[in-house]
Amino acid sequence: MKSLDTLEFEPRFARLGDAFSAVIKPSAIEQPQMVICSQSALALLDLPASTADDPRLLQLASGEWYWPNVAPRAMVYSGHQFGGYTPRLGDGRGLLLGEVVNSAGEHWDVHLKGAGLTPFSRTGDGRAVLRSSIREFLASEYLHTLGIATSRALCVADSKTMVWREQRETAATLIRLAPSHIRFGHFEYFYYNQKNAELEQLHAHVLNDLYPECLSADEPLAALLSAVVKRTAETIALWQAYGFCHGVMNTDNMSILGLTFDFGPYAFLDDFKQAHICNHSDHHGRYAFNQQVAMGYWNLTAFAETLTRHVAVERLQNILDGYAAIQQQAYLTAMRARLGLLGEQEGDALLVDKLLAQMDHSAVDYTLFFRHLGELPVAEALAKLRDDFINRAAFDEWSAEFMARNVDDSRSQEQRRAQMHAVNPLYMLRNYLIQIAIEAAEDGDYAPLHRLHQVLSSPFTEQEGCAEYAQRPPDWGKHLSISCSS
Length: 486
Ligand code: AMP
Ligand code: MG
Known about the structure:
The structure is a single chain. By secondary structure, this protein is an alpha+beta fold. It folds into two domains: 8-181, no CATH class; 215-486, no CATH class. Helix content is 40%, strand content 13%. The chain has 16 helices and 14 strands. It has helices at residues 39-44, 55-62, 130-146, 184-192, 196-210, 220-242, 292-305, 313-321, 323-339, 348-362, 368-375, 378-385, 392-405, 413-421, 431-442, 447-456; strands at residues 8-9, 21-23, 33-37, 73-75, 79-81, 84-86, 94-101, 107-113, 128-129, 152-158, 162-164, 168-178, 244-245, 267-268. The longest helix is centred in the middle third of the chain and has 23 residues, at 220-242. The mean pLDDT is 97. Bound molecules: adenosine monophosphate (AMP) and magnesium ion (MG).
């Protein structure tokens, strides 16, 4: 085990130099308080659970202290925001505090979000608020438990430093971990600024340090695009399978590692709604739930564009053309598991689509439907679920098809339930649950947040006394408008 003072570093990104980032000291928040800490994230750095109470962690999170021999850096990048190109973005309120290597040889960027002004702050104040920091913490750690690739969250600290959003709020910070913070937007910045030498330096870093398996390919950068297409397609497939709506899929929020990254006004669906828009600034629904797959492709083409000086366009296009099939395959695999379907059959995609159309029409809960489907033998489960559908005849028709698809299933109900429950969470990170935890935390009571995080850390296992976390939202909690000012 390590302590925060004995971690080891390897500056893979920092060594790229000043064309890639600016050395900036964090500006500390006042009277910091530890709000929540993730023990499983601590373990990634070989830090014991007791680190949560180590004053050093609070010093690090508040920006009061950072590692003496590692210069904190704000990264420069650009990106397409809602389809329009912004030539320079960068870490406007975040700093890469250090690149840690753990005992397993894994690399973890330690990134402090809300650390104050940087050369990339534009009109912002360099701060993050408690509300958005808690939201990012919960989402990262929850997606991870669902098995969805994501950046991780180490801890959140609150303070007495006041900032202005729609109202006065306290400034908070979040420590985020990821093997790399490189985004599609990094490539775009050097490509559109015609900084070829730096673009090639970036290529070398990403290939050598993040995708070494691509180095032996005939064209490593083509192999890189294939790998990024695959990871992105698989991550988005799982977003769709579990009802995660990212909300701000700009290219500067797209991780080169295919991680779910940069959490803003995200939402997990309660009622299943294809056209759900979670970002209330997204007036045209560019990033609506049912646009995410297409937007993933759009973003990948923006990334591929940055490779056009190095790889033939036809080759890039060929690789991009593979995206839809990879995505669909990963999605169907996840949905078959959620529905408890064994093997693969021709009509599976249609069976899923028909069900979702009906769930959408009847506003059926996207989490509990699957959980309940596994709870009882198929026919009994369907008979019970039928009550949730408005068009009973259509649901009966679907049920008959589903029963026919299940005829060869020779598992015992115990086996079937165990397999389905292992992929269908009972406890979902619902917006209203987050809201309750945030409001208490804003009043200085972190207990509801800790309890929510605790329950959600085993989302597939029914826990005693936790029935209230497994319910559909009350009316007030169904249509919460999530501010994207974070
Ligand atoms: P986001 O919407 O969080 O992905 O941020 C988009 C860009 O705005 C990034 O360059 C952020 O660093 C920057 N940004 C967001 N909020 C702030 C803030 N409060 N202060 C400075 N920069 C910010
Ligand atoms: Mg961002």
